[in-house]
Amino acid sequence: xxxxxxxxxxxxxxxxxxxxxxxxxxxxxxxxxxxxxxxxxxxxxxxxxxxxxxxxxxxxxxxxxxxxxxxxxxxxxxxxxxxxxxxxxxxxxxxxxxxxxxxxxxxxxxxxxxxxxxxxxxxxxxxxxxxxxxxxxxxxxxxxxxxxxxxxxxxxxxxxxxxxxxxxxxxxxxxxxxxxxxxxxxxxxxxxxxxxxxxxxxxxxxxxxxxxxxxxxxxxxxxxxxxxxxxxxxxxxxxxxxxxxxxxxxxxxxxxxxxxxxxxxxxxxxxxxxxxxxxxxxxxxxxxxxxxxxxxxxxxxxxxxxxxxxxxxxxxxxxxxxxxxxxxxxxxxxxxxxxxxxxxxxxxxxxxxxxxxxxxxxxxxxxxxxxxxxxxxxxxxxxxxxxxxxxxxxxxxxxxxxxxxxxxxxxxxxxxxxxxxxxxxxxxxxxxxxxxxxxxxxxxxxxxxxxxxxxxxxxxxxxxxxxxxxxxxxxxxxxxxxxxxxxxxxxxxxxxxxxxxxxxxxxxxxxxxxxxxxxxxxxxxxxxxxxxxxxxxxxxxxxxxxxxxxxxxxxxxxxxxxxxxxxxxxxxxxxxxxxxxxxxxxxxxxxxxxxxxxxxxxxxxxxxxxxxxxxxxxxxxxxxxxxxxxxxxxxxxxxxxxxxxxxxxxxxxxxxxxxxxxxxxxxxxxxxxxxxxxxxxxxxxxxxxxxxxxxxxxxxxxxxxxxxxxxxxxxxxxxxxxxxxxxxxxxxxxxxxxxxxxxxxxxxxxxxxxxxxxxxxxxxxxxxxxxxxxxxxxxxxxxxxxxxxxxxxxxxxxxxxxxxxxxxxxxxxxxxxxxxxxxxxxxxxxxxxxxxxxxxxxxxxxxxxxx
Length: 851
Hints:
Elements: H1 19-36, H2 66-69, E1 77-85, E2 88-98, E3 108-110, H3 113-116, H4 123-127, E4 131-132, E5 137-138, E6 147-151, E7 156-160, E8 185-199, E9 204-218, E10 221-235, E11 240-256, E12 261-269, E13 279-287, E14 303-307, E15 311-317, E16 320-327, E17 330-334, E18 344-351, E19 356-362, E20 375-384, E21 396-404, E22 409-418, E23 421-431, E24 437-449, E25 453-468, E26 473-483, H5 490-498, E27 507-519, E28 524-535, E29 541-554, E30 557-571, E31 574-586, E32 592-600, E33 603-615, E34 618-626, E35 632-641, E36 645-654, E37 658-672, E38 675-679, E39 688-692, E40 700-703, E41 706-709, E42 715-718, E43 726-731, E44 740-744, E45 746-750, E46 756-760, E47 762-765, E48 767-774, E49 786-788, E50 794-797, E51 803-809, E52 814-819, E53 822-828, E54 840-846
Parallel strand pairs: 1-7, 39-46, 48-54
Antiparallel strand pairs: 1-2, 2-3, 4-5, 6-7, 8-9, 8-37, 9-10, 10-11, 11-12, 12-13, 13-20, 14-17, 15-16, 15-18, 18-19, 20-21, 21-22, 22-23, 23-24, 24-25, 25-26, 26-27, 27-28, 28-29, 29-30, 30-31, 31-32, 32-33, 33-34, 34-35, 35-36, 36-37, 37-38, 39-42, 40-41, 40-43, 43-45, 44-47, 48-51, 49-50, ...
């Protein structure tokens, strides 16, 4: 069918629009007509013909609509594109477009075996695929339903694959074929806390502590060194100065994706669900839960407590700091510990009034169940060592497994062999369906001590977990463990055999429970955490935390909250009891007003506070009140999440008793061959993504942890990236500067643990202006010719008589002009550019064919 439309588009002579703007409207008209009035289209692959009579241009013979004549047509050649496979992004691929066999005028993307291997196709799907161009390009017709469409404007090749062809995926989890080991680089992450306090007796103390990780990434390997440092100086009656710096751990690890496991070499702690943890130097290979789909992953421990003032919380294990942070006065709950942490954790809360409280958290695990048919394992070998890197004790080897026998039963067991110390464990797990899940195991130990002979004993353990949907409550875990008097774990044996401190005592019974309950009709939630440990040769210890919170509306105040927290820590025959009451109601623009009452150590403090977020990256809290003896108190807490670091400043005072202030900073430096950037961090030494805006600074980039801006080199690092999860980072288009456009504003990656990902946004920065393009003979490139910069990004389309609207103009830059399926000439932009509003006259230099 031939469709003729006459005199529907006004000419520049009759239009009230200036001629340059008309030159821009013509290509837009072409696109609209192409979409609405195709002259002939028999098949999607066939060319579309246009009646150029509808275009009121002077030289109808000088028109090149080749790029519009076929849907998705791309002129043959190589292009740097990102592959969008369904929702997954494979960036920065060199894709060659070739004429298919038997169709010399066509164009098709050559998807190489290497590219296809990253799609996540099932093995059976790949067996049915055929290839062309000397078996280097996938024949899309051989896999029914797969399509590939190029979008050069965004620098993407969109590939749709039927889900039946793909390996298992979820919204956030990708199969191993999509995992990225990142690029090589170095990193240095730090967490520094400083505190200065003055006491009523004239004493002063200054404390600076820090910890972090430095490392190198080489392919799949992560080389790491953990450090911690402390400086203490006190003046007054007992003046002291202490300082130390320790490299407390050197190790290397990598993902073994074929085994769904993690290999660690060097200094580490035993990661075991059956035997207590101890520090050693050697090697381990452990099934990595993080490499499994989310619904198959394990449990990560958490620490809860209450701070009396602004305080520093330090979580350590066997002398090594695992986590350190500052918290505001009131209840705190730390939930982002590594899921690989096991055994007992030592928690120290240092208050700004100088008091210190400590307690122990047992990371009891949920019942040991394994998916039917799946075998999970952990093997380690090496030699025990102390915190000072001194090896002590016998060489050892340990191994354990868990086998999902069927949908209801799991069998697990293991052994630890070390010559004079040996232990074996065997257990069974059962899915009780409506009644929850339970596992039961027994461990037998035998230790040979020079002065005490052979000590042999058993330890029995029961773990239970259940969510009661009908009651809207959940027992996260409940555990009971009983150990005979002569039972010893490896740490106790090493301490008894080689150490000087034997006062820790022998464990007898341990009860642990964590319980959550929701009373939804009343908008009430309750949380209970309890641990009770008894010993054969010393007093028992107890730790429990209880919190209840309620949300309700009062008049114009919506979401008013009331919460009560109570805690007890009993150790060495003394109790540390406390209670915290908080009432909070919305006040002002996004703020909240609160009343807090805290009881501890026989005293009762009452404060009124105000909290507000200034913006996405800044928030503050202020409090003022009185103590039970009538003294005034006050405190402030300000947090800033900057592009280069996260910083917290705090201060507090209590009458004439004390005043204190502190600051903390958390951040890191990541450097690669692609560039370097300072940034804030979430986990020291953890996974991160470096993004590149092609040298354009101050581009707002948004990850799940907030917005950061690129540095003066156009680089930024987003550290809130989870391993083995699909993570997205996007340009905040609403905050882009006026002279910057984003042709590709979203990037994705699925990174292995500790990787440094690298992704490049499509950023077009520069001025925008009208231009007239002329060839050497005074003529113009044909209507519809494309203009691209050196990065291959389209910056304009030639209109009538060479009129072109150019974007992304930079002084002295060169751009290529293409028609007839090839680059024909090149324009050079002047330096400096003319004043804004003035047009450009740009000669186009013809290129030789070999260029």
